[in-house]
Amino acid sequence: MSGTGVVVVAYNSGDVIGTCLDSCESLPTVVVDNASEDDTLQQVKQRPQVLLLANATNRGFAAAVNQGVATLDTEFLLLLNPDTRLQTSVRPLQEACSKPGVGLATGRLLDTSGSIQSGFNVRALPSPLTLIFEVLGFNRIFPWTGVNRRYRCADFNPDQPADIQQPAGAFLLFRRDVWQRLNGFDPEFHPLWFEDVDFCKRAREAGFRIRYVPEAAAVHHGGHSVSKLPPACREHYWYVSLLRYASKHFPTYAFRGLCAAVVSGSVFRAVAAMVRWRSLKPLSVYASIMRMALRCMISGRLRDPGDLPGYSKAVG
Predict the structure, then answer these.
(1) For the chain, what is the largest distance between any 2 Cα atoms, rounded to a whole number of angstroms?
(2) Residues 101 and 241 occupy one common structural domain
(3) What is the band of 308 on the pLDDT scale with cuts at 50, 70, 90?
(4) 89 secondary structure, DSSP code
(5) Do 184 and 283 belong to one domain?
(6) How far is residue 121's CA from residue 15's CA, in Å, rounded to a whole number?
(7) What confidence category does residue 304 fall into, taking pLDDT thresholds of 50, 70 and 90?
(8) How many CA atoms lie within 13 A of 271 on its CB side?
(9) Which residues pair with 6 in a beta bridge?
């Protein structure tokens, strides 16, 4: 077992996935499609060198990654978003992961103008205070605060290799034995968000280093599949995954504090969304999120989101 295989998880990615796959043509590649309704499958089938796994339902990002990794037989796995295009060889990432103690690696993520995607490419693992600032909107309103600058690694030098905490899952290479030791990505983060953060946190807790390697690069459009989701679904998915991460990794008192911040922040977000959308619909969306956060705050843990008021309606 050697070399690098590529895993691409697709969802209604027909207008971008062809370019992504063409940039990977020298590498064994598997596309796991989560029940796309556009021409994603047709685009993949036009490239016979690519293995296609077409799921009948949306299994979620994490489960699809595990499905793809299990199909390949390479030592290294490159997780690549369908709206990403390789600009360089992945050999520098493979070499970094071959060094003692290193289990994961990423490179430069560039936007379509060629600029580094600062604030997204590399981040610190979120603390309870970080996520409280996120849900209250402080990181957006006051981007200069120390909490936000540390979280988004504002002082990070993208020209220098470094050990990092949380690379973006859009362009992430890891060793198979690391994936096996961690029992893969956690499919409870369904359908998306925070599964890559959780994977990186568990890798670091297991003693693996994560390297940033500027010699490797990829162009990333950003938010492609997410933009296809209805706004109500996006909000529910994000908050459920955020609280799942917090419930899994934070002490109970910190989790309850974050739940209280979600309740408070949802009031302001609902008002802003109603003004922006010129509709009362955000009121029901955020009311459901507030009820979810209140129940979590009382119980001290995240309940099954499918049992939460309004959740099944939002995602159905």
Answers:
(1) 56
(2) no
(3) very low
(4) -
(5) no
(6) 23
(7) low
(8) 4
(9) 29, 78
Rounded to 10 degrees, what is the CA torsion of 19, 25, 27, 30?
A: 60
User: pTM surpassing 0.85?
Assistant: yes
Query: Which whole number is the average pLDDT over 245-259?
Result: 97
201 shares its domain with 253: no
The pLDDT assigned to 306 comes to: 53
Residue 259 phi, psi (nearest 5): -60, -40
Structural contact between residues 256 and 264, judged by C-beta atoms closer than 8 angstroms: no
Kindly report the average pLDDT of the chain as a whole number. 92
Q: What is the DSSP letter of 106?
A: E
**In whole angstroms, what is the distance from residue 212 CA to residue 15 CA?**
29
Q: Are residues 172 and 286 in the same domain?
A: no
Both 25 and 106 in one domain: the answer is yes
Contact 65, 88 (CB under 8 A): no
Residues 207, 233 share a domain: no
Q: Which tokens hold the place of 142? A: 């006051």
Identity of the amino acid at 252: T
- 104-118, 134-148, 231-245, 302-316, range with the lowest pLDDT: 302-316
The domain boundary residue, chosen from 167, 191, 220: 220
Cα gap 59→52, rounded to integer Å: 15
Asked whether residue 214 falls in the same domain as residue 309, the answer is: no
Counted domains in the chain: 2
State the residue range of the domain holding 251.
229-315
| 130 belongs to a structural domain | no
191 is a domain residue: yes
Residue 32 reports pLDDT greater than 80: yes
Residues 194, 64, single domain; the answer is yes
Domain of residue 211, CATH code: 3.90.550.10
Is the Cα dihedral 275, 279, 280, 283 positive or negative?
Answer: negative
Q: What pLDDT is stored for residue 316 in this prediction?
A: 35
Average pLDDT (277-301) is 90
Query: In this structure, is residue 146 part of a structural domain?
Result: no
